[in-house]
Design brief:
The complex is a heterodimer of chains A (192) and B (284). Chain A is mainly alpha-helical. Chain A has eleven helices and no strands. Chain A starts with 15 loop residues before the first helix and ends with a helix. With 284 residues, chain B is α/β, with parallel strands linked by helices. At the A-B interface, α6, α7, α8, α9 and α10 of A face α1, α3, α4, α6 and α10 of B. Bound molecules: iron/sulfur cluster (SF4) (2 copies).
Chain lengths: 192, 284
Amino acid sequence: MKIQRTIKYEGELDRSLLTYLFSLPEGEHIKRCIQCGTCSGVCPLSIYMDFTPRKLVALVREGFSQEVLSSFTIWLCSSCYSCTVSCPQQIPITEIMYALKRKAIEEGAYPRRFPVPVLAREFYRMVFKNGRNSEALLVLRLILKTSLLKALSYMPLGLKLLRSGRFSLKKERISRPSGVRKLLKAAREVKP
Amino acid sequence: MRFAYYPGCSLKGTGKAYEKSTLAVFKALGLELIEIPEWNCCGATAYMAVDELASEVLSFRNLVLAQRMGLQRVVAPCSACYLNLLKARKAFLSNDPKRERLCSALKRAGWEYDCSALPEVLHPLQVFTEIVGLEKIKERIRRPLKGLKIVPYYGCQLVRPYDGYDDPIYPVKMDLLLELTGAEIISDYPLKTRCCGASLTGTIEEAGVRLNELLITEAKRRGGNVMSTLCALCQFNLEMYQGKMKVNHKMPVLYFTQILGLALGLGEKELGMEHLLYRPSLEV
Ligand code: SF4
Ligand code: SF4
């Protein structure tokens, strides 16, 4: 067993992530959190999270930026907005989760070979290239980029889709995807 | 009445029965859906996780294309698409700095559009309940669905985060619509807006399957013999992962447009019933 210090000293805290969240619309509402735990209670995924949503908010506020960015929590969030509509302090928790995902990808802080961020990036690329997403091809890319072993577990699903006439390997594409690409590039360039 | 139709990627793939049944029901109600030419993917939740502005321009492009068709309303049957289109529209009509960045991105890419009239975004459920109206639909019911005990399941992104159309936690509009079909409606289903896990079924299967197992088991426990969905992803998750659950209840999971279509007297083929894994049993 490796003995590790389990608390942080004031000087080691880093509130840069909090400052970043303040820049979101209504991001400053995060200051109002009363740690009531409503968000964690309604969150359907909190039982799988390393930090529940309530805890995550507390950690961000105190300056545990690295812990938050590399957490599984943000990738388990399915964007169901249950927390957002239930928070008594109107904290836009789902948007905060999205913002943290973006930051984690930007800084490469997400857990390696973890399928959720890999899927997000593959999805991004596919739409950038073709303007549309082809479901089966996306899953194939996900398997290639994460674990080939998992491919086997997708077999029964593939067969079911095949049987019900819902499986297609056709590449969905708009006729001039360059227009979409141009727009996406422009979006990248106007970043503040 | 004419609407621009935004199918989204799923309705062209695994959710093709949703497309078939939506088109068939609209036609039967005398409404015209015209597919937006060259529409692009809405970015789903993935784009928001990578780049927010990119996510908004993607949806904005679709709204502008609909505007160019001269139509004031866009219909999006998939809840994720619906929310993305709605968000882009809201970002554009808001005063926060997002709007400025959105406009300058569009300008930089050479896009022209009319700022004053961005089309409204609607889900088919809204079209049926708000625009056509329940009374009108009631008159058109040809085949009462005796024997069905329907559990209406709404999922997340149609009712959240923006309320106004229906309650974000305990909505009723689909219950009211399906009541017209003569089937029994299980309205006290407490998980009607609990998440199906979205793409987690494909990425963290254990968590995704578990969420759907809760939904199916509770639907069964309440006496339901068919679930009604209004999102391509919810239907996919609920139906396709039953084989991975501890008990496979073989619960039929239909799109609400299929159920409505059956009651309107439309044919099984038109409604894409052959794409279902588990069929409901209808008394004749
Ligand atoms: S529900 Fe809102 S106020 Fe309560 S702990 Fe969660 S974020 Fe804080
Ligand atoms: S939006 Fe994310 S954090 Fe909030 S309740 Fe849903 S899964 Fe949990």
